[in-house]
């Protein structure tokens, strides 16, 4: 973003400061003319007054249009709060930007009336007009950043929910996998599994891939990394849910799964885990 000078911004700052109440009234009146903003009503007035105060402070201290400057720090913090607050009111990012830009017409009218024959008011207005436009765009960036952060958080939560680790028995932990495995998800699976191994003192971990649609070289590598990490924590792994098609694919691709035990179903894997733990399951009817 280019940085432009504000040699006459002080003219606008002085006019806004001396005629703040009048300007605020005209700004609120202009909002009432915009259908999407008319709902703001009196509750938006304190925010509008604070914006004017911070605008005057910034124009008085700043010699440049630099939104990242220290003199505009309070404005940045305020606009983050404003964007979040108006989003809670049901305002769209465009509505919040238009809320600020609605100030421009009454401000231009006020500066023309007060400035009169002094030609400096027009150049000063043009500079302040740029500042208001920049801050309006900034509110849209804030909302967009918040939405992206929310999406990332929800994706992470969904990722964690899609990789639950279950304690099946004393010393036996299982992690059922559903969907495609990628590097990010494998890391989540590995972290969750290792944490469960430590917390539950598990000696055997079952990785069930019944819900994994396909197993290619990359997926196999991810599985083997998880197995290796579990072994380093002192737990042996059993991979269950190896369907005939997956077995054929593994052989066709020449993937070496080493000494990892594999079973066709989770039930078979659990039986193997019981034998390794020295447990015996008998029917109550016998």
What would you note in describing this structure?
The chain is an alpha/beta fold and 286 residues long. The protein folds into two domains: 9-156, Globin-like (Orthogonal Bundle); 166-276, 2-Layer Sandwich (Transcription Regulator spoIIAA). Helix content is 61%, strand content 9%. It has eleven helices and five strands; from the N terminus they run αααααααββαβαβαβα. Strands 1-2-3-4-5 form a five-stranded mixed sheet, with helices on both faces. α1 crosses α7 and α6 (104-115) runs antiparallel to α7. The model is unreliable at 1-6 (pLDDT under 50).
Summarize the structure.
This protein is an alpha/beta fold. Helices cover 61% and strands 9% of the residues. The longest helix has 42 residues, at 120-161.
Question: Topology of this protein?
Answer:
Blueprint lengths: L8 H10 L1 H13 L12 H17 L11 H16 L4 H9 L2 H12 L4 H42 L4 E4 L2 E7 L4 H18 L3 E8 L5 H16 L3 E5 L3 H10 L7 E3 L2 H11 L10
Parallel strand pairs: 2-3, 3-4, 4-5
Antiparallel strand pairs: 1-2
Helix pairs in contact: 1-3, 1-7, 2-3, 2-6, 3-4, 4-7, 5-7, 6-7, 8-9
Rg, alpha carbons:
32 Å
Q: What is the molecular shape?
A: rod-shaped
The helix content, as a percent range, equals 55-70%
- Tell me the count of domains: 2
Total number of strands = 5
Oligomer: single chain
CATH top level of the largest domain is Mainly Alpha
């Amino acid at each position: 973003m280019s940085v432009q000078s504000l040699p006459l911004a002080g003219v606008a700052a002085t006019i806004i400061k001396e005629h703040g109440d009048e300007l605020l009234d005209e700004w609120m009146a202009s909002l009432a003319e915009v259908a999407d903003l008319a709902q703001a009503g009196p509750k938006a007035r304190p925010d509008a007054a604070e914006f004017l105060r911070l605008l005057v402070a910034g124009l008085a201290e700043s010699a440049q249009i630099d939104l990242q400057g220290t003199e505009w720090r309070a404005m940045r913090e305020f606009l983050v709060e404003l964007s979040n607050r108006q989003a809670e009111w049901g305002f769209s990012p465009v509505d919040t930007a238009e809320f600020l830009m609605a100030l421009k017409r009454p401000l231009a009218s006020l500066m023309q009336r007060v400035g009169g024959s002094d030609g400096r008011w027009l150049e000063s207005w043009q500079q302040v007009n740029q500042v208001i436009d920049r801050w309006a765009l900034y509110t849209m960036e804030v909302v967009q950043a918040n939405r992206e952060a929310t999406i990332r958080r929800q994706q992470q939560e969904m990722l964690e929910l899609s990789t639950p680790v279950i304690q099946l028995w004393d010393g036996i932990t299982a992690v059922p996998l559903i969907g495609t495995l990628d590097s990010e998800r494998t890391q989540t699976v590995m972290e969750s599994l290792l944490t469960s191994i430590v917390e539950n003192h598990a000696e055997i971990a079952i990785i069930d891939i019944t819900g994994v649609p396909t197993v290619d070289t990359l997926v196999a590598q991810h599985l083997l990394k998880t197995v290796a990490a579990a072994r380093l924590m002192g737990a042996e792994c059993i991979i269950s849910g190896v369907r005939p098609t997956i077995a054929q694919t593994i052989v066709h691709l020449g993937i070496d799964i080493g000494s990892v035990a594999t079973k066709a179903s989770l039930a078979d894997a659990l039986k193997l885990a019981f034998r390794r733990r020295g447990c015996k399951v008998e029917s109550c009817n016998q």
